[in-house]
Amino acid sequence: PKDALERLTAAPRRYGWHATLKAPFALAPGVDWLTLHHAVQTLAQGLRPFAMPPMVVERIGDFLALVPTPAHPANAEIQAAAAACVAQLHPLAAPLSEQDLARRRSAGLSARQDELLLQWGYPFVLEEFRFHLSLTGSLAGADDETVELVQDAADQFFADLPPLRFSSLALFAEPAPGADFVLLDHLELGA
Length: 191
Known about the structure:
This protein has helices spanning 2-8, 10-15, 33-46, 74-89, 98-105, 111-120, 144-158; strands at residues 50-51, 55-60, 63-68, 133-134, 165-166, 168-173, 182-188. By secondary structure, the chain is of the alpha+beta class. It has a three-stranded antiparallel sheet, with helices on one face. It starts with a helix and ends with a strand. 19% of the residues are buried.
């Protein structure tokens, strides 16, 4: 049903359809938009474009996502690009508040994920990172038939996806808490 599809895809629509390489963060005191933009531009210039692995629809926890096929050599390049984003942009991020730490920890993190949270401001980075493009928000409230229909539709829609290239970084902002994300810039790799 259309209503169910609208509800289930509300979260990824708010973020703009993309794969997150560096989790959203507040800027550290004294860091402005130009400093952030320059850092992302420098980061993009240091990365080289590459062909992505074939992508498939998969359920990750309680949501559907488009993910690269496992055991493909290009997955190492994806991991390296994500790690570079985390490490190079982290100095620009404000420390997490106690509320943010508590919210992240409420998900039942492993000891390693908690360590990553404290070091990098997000628990799913480096070896815990999994590249994905979210297709739905939480499926927890949906009945099995609806989930199956959505998954079948996604499988069919993405079955003929042409080869993709990892060739740019996008910089997004959340103008106000809970607002739709806004694309600020799109930076070509190696340019």
